[in-house]
Amino acid sequence: MLSLKLVRSLKWISFLLLLYVSLGTNFLGNIGALVASRGYFIPKESSLFTFSVTLDNIGNGEYWLYGEDDAFYYYAGVMPYAVMAKDVPCPGLDKLDYRTWCGVVVPKHDGYPQ
Predict the structure, then answer these.
(1) How many domains would you assign to the chain?
(2) Helix (H) and strand (E) counts for the chain?
(3) Are 69 and 51 in contact (CB under 8 A)?
(4) What are phi and psi of 100, to 5 degrees?
């Protein structure tokens, strides 16, 4: 049987882990968006914990337009979405304008940004 001290320690560890996941990551926001929005998705290069939306679609769709995590920038205005590594040297980079991204070919379209 587990000692009382061990049980208390496990409770504290569980509490602190839950607190970290809730406040220190994007996990809860991403789960909520996945449940509530049909068009929302997490890029395969990212995760529920690290992906963050930087610009939402301003139209009727329930999806993000630009996002990022620790390693990449993402643009979802075209399918499949565009990805640019953050460690790529890119003078004049604007993370909210895929046209300034280096080493990424994005098909021409009439969508955002204007």
Answers:
(1) 1
(2) 2, 4
(3) yes
(4) -95, 0
Which H helix or E strand runs over 89?
Answer: none
Residue 13 lies in a domain: yes
In this predicted model, what pLDDT tens digit does every residue of 47-69 receive, in sequence order?
A: 999 999 999 888 777 789 999 99
Q: Where are the beta strands (DSSP E) in 19-99?
A: 52-56, 64-68, 72-75, 82-85
Does the pLDDT at position 106 exceed 80?
Answer: no
Structural domain for 15, as ranges: 4-100
- Give the separation between CA 113 and CA 105, rounded to whole angstroms: 16
> Is 21 in contact with 30 (CB distance < 8 Å)?
no
Yes or no: say if 77 and 104 are a contact pair by the CB < 8 Å rule: no
